[in-house]
Amino acid sequence: MSMLRIAIQTKGRLNEQSVALLQDAGVSVDDSKRKFLSASKTFPVELLYLRDDDIPQAVSMGAADAGIVGYNEVLERGFDVDIADKLGFGACRISLAIPKDEQYDGPQYFNGKRIATSYPAILKDWLKKNNVDAQIHTIAGSVEIAPAAGMADAIFDIVSSGGTLVSNGLKEVEKVVFSEAVLITNKALSEDKKEILDKLVFRFNAVRDSKGLKYLMMNIPNGKIEDALKIVPAMKSPTILPLAETGWSSLHTVVAEEVLWEKIEALKEVGATGILVTSVEKLVL
Ligand code: ATP
Ligand code: MG
């Protein structure tokens, strides 16, 4: 039987969430004795641990069938792969930043400037599109210190909160690419492997769709069911079960976590009692 080989980051920012997503999707791997390749006992998947830089190439060559990697790396490396799913974690952007006291009046600012980056391909493309003639200085690490070190006039680097820029006396002036972790796949997967991939993507969606949802159960006088449903509209038709006590029912529904407390308060006001909240693990729509 065939196995889908998925490359994930060995360590670093995406490792933990990649493993967690796979676990939630029923793909468990024994992480303790991590070898460079390990098979799941619960799903036809084996994991190949790589540096994130190498994942797009491994997938385009077919050394791995799929990979979990930042979209920024996919774009920079330029290998021909498919994007099968966006995974909703590892959010960041790649931005141009300049010393905070400089005046910025648009892309032409960068004419004749030296820009330090680990993303030369994406930067080159942006400069070309904006008709800017600048020098690209490719640096592997600590790009943010280049201006203070006198190695560059500006940087083009990953930003998430912006804290690193501020502490290096820089300000973000152009947000060029928005990125998150993506599931990439080889262009020529066999039918068997495609089937495994489809199942996996389906499971990823179920995990994602359940995020931030709470399952709510309550007892409600029959005469108040309609009022309650105005507060918590159900996804399809609501689940309403009669209780042993006449005149009362049990109402079950799903609500978003960020509105949970206001919903509970409103439900109490219309007469709901015994309100029970549980978390939702998976949701298949
Ligand atoms: P590796 O050792 O695998 O080469 P790395 O040091 O190149 O790892 P990490 O810093 O672990 O890479 O980042 C991996 C990915 O996490 C980035 O490519 C990006 O998609 C995403 N990411 C999200 N937020 C940030 C951030 N604030 N800084 C850097 N990367 C971020
Ligand atoms: Mg890397």
Structure report:
The structure is a single chain. It contains eight helices and 15 strands. The chain is an alpha/beta fold and 285 residues long. It folds into three domains: 4-90 and 180-210, 3-Layer(aba) Sandwich (D-Maltodextrin-Binding Protein, domain 2), CATH 3.40.190; 92-179, D-Maltodextrin-Binding Protein, domain 2; 213-279, Alpha-Beta Plaits (2-Layer Sandwich). The chain binds adenosine-5'-triphosphate and magnesium ion (MG). Magnesium ion is lined by residues 51-53.
| Quantity of strands, as a count | 15
CATH class of the largest domain: Alpha Beta
From the alpha-carbon coordinates, what is the Rg to the nearest angstrom? Answer: 25 Å
By CATH, the architecture of the largest domain is named 3-Layer(aba) Sandwich
Distance between the termini: 29 Å
Task: Compute the number of structural domains.
Answer: 3
C-alpha geometry: flat
pLDDT averaged over residues? 94
CATH H-tier superfamily of the largest domain: Periplasmic binding protein-like II
Please give the share of residues in helix: 25-40%
Number of helices: 8
Question: What proportion strand?
Answer: 25-35%
Helix and strand element order: EHEEHEHEEEHEEHEEHEHEEHE
Low-confidence stretches: none
Q: What can be said about the biggest beta sheet? A: 6 strands, mixed
Instruction: Enter the CATH topology name of the largest domain.
Output: D-Maltodextrin-Binding Protein, domain 2
